[in-house]
Automatic annotation (TrEMBL):
The keyword Oxidoreductase applies. Residues 3-126 form the Semialdehyde dehydrogenase NAD-binding domain. NCBIfam families: asd_B, PRK14874.1. It comes from Triparma laevis f. longispina. The keyword Signal does not apply. Belongs to the aspartate-semialdehyde dehydrogenase family. The lineage of its organism: Eukaryota, Sar, Stramenopiles, Ochrophyta, Bolidophyceae. Homodimer. It holds the Pfam family Semialdhyde_dh. This is aspartate-semialdehyde dehydrogenase. CDD domains: ASADH_C_bac_euk_like. One of its GO terms (biological process) is methionine biosynthetic process. Its EC number is 1.2.1.11.
């Protein structure tokens, strides 16, 4: 049975990490994880599937003395840069797997960036105790795209993302809710502090910092991370990331060019039975992925599969949707730990 800690337990991802661990008692055991957070949250009692658990103030020496099997980090990049590597080694000389949800180490050549259904073996190949969890949009898209890439060899991707407020954590979701309530009640919307513009009844075509090439960092993450996870430098990716006024579950419109001839039916057959992916593609009967139906769901949904009008027989268009807090964050991290525990 596994000894687990969750650091950053009070945030949106941290809360889901605890739930995902509890859903796998047969793998991790019935012992509840230890929950850590900042001094501001220390002492709070959280309602969890394990029952009420008290939040412990984070102290690196405390964690290093506990010899955890797995430590999940749901924290900022700066926090991870300072603490992630030291946490992999305990005071007694044993090692701990640290699974980091931040972007701090995703692009380090000696740190595996893992979607367990795709490149779990990279952990052993790199012999690393620190494992990076991908960006939410990348993880969701990769689940649908990798089987297609294996069979048809993707050359180019054009990706437009429609990202929920949950991508900015609990404060982002609360800002959306507060703004919507104020608008419906005929009140002045509160000043936006999390997003660059008011999000209610709006969309914001810029997420994260602007880069020198005119793309945002969020958009470049899709390119950088897809290539690293797929272990290829040959896929060209152009992305546009848009924040929309939904609470959770991201959606992505994806156009691809492939080396081999491809068709919508071939994509359906390719994805059939793949773990973590479900095809919902009957648009004549209004069956297709939507964020509301994908919220709280483990699987990534794929639909609106069409032959490309640009790339003809060498391309398809499709629509992908997945829960950002689950497949795009907590679930992916816990599935990594699950496979390590089973191994």
């Amino acid at each position: 049975m596994s000894k687990i800690a969750v650091v950053g337990c009070t945030g949106a991802v941290g809360i889901e990490l605890v739930k995902c661990c509890h859903a796998r008692l047969s793998v991790f055991g019935t012992e509840s994880p230890d929950l850590y957070a900042s001094p501001r949250s220390a002492g709070k009692v959280l309602d969890t599937p394990y029952g009420p658990l008290t939040v412990i103030e984070f102290n690196i020496e405390t964690l290093k003395s506990k010899s955890y099997d797995f430590i999940f980090l749901a924290v900022s990049g700066d926090f991870s840069l300072k603490n992630a590597i030291p946490l992999t080694t305990n005071v007694n000389g044993t090692d701990t797997y640290v699974i980091d949800n931040s972007s701090a180490y995703r692009y380090h050549s000696d740190v595996p960036l893992v979607v367990p259904e795709i490149n779990f073996d990279s952990i052993a190949q790199m012999n690393s105790k620190l494992i990076a969890n991908p960006n939410c949009t990348t993880a969701i898209a990769a689940m649908a795209l990798y089987p297609i890439h294996q069979q048809f060899k993707i050359k180019k991707l054009i990706v437009s993302t429609y990202q929920a407020a949950s991508g900015a954590g609990e404060p982002g979701m609360q800002e959306l809710l507060d703004g919507c309530k104020a608008h419906v009640n005929g009140e002045t919307m509160p000043e936006n502090k999390i997003f660059s513009h008011p999000l209610p009844f709006n969309c914001i075509p810029m997420i994260d910092k602007l880069q020198d090439n005119g793309y945002t960092k969020e958009e470049m993450k899709v390119a950088w991370e897809t290539r690293k996870i797929f272990r290829t430098d040959d896929i060209k990716v152009s992305a546009t990331a848009v924040r929309i006024p939904t609470l959770r579950a991201h959606a992505e419109a994806i156009t691809m060019e492939t080396e081999k001839d491809i068709s919508p039916m071939a994509v359906v057959e390719c994805l059939k039975g793949k773990p973590g992916v479900v095809v919902e593609d009957d648009p004549a009967n209004n069956v297709f992925p939507v964020p509301l139906n994908c919220s709280g769901r483990d699987e990534v949904s794929v639909g609106r599969i069409r032959q490309s009008l640009i790339f003809d027989e060498k391309g398809v268009d499709l629509f992908v949707c997945g829960d950002q807090l689950l497949r795009g964050a907590a679930l992916n991290a816990v599935l990594i730990a699950e496979k390590l525990a089973q191994k």
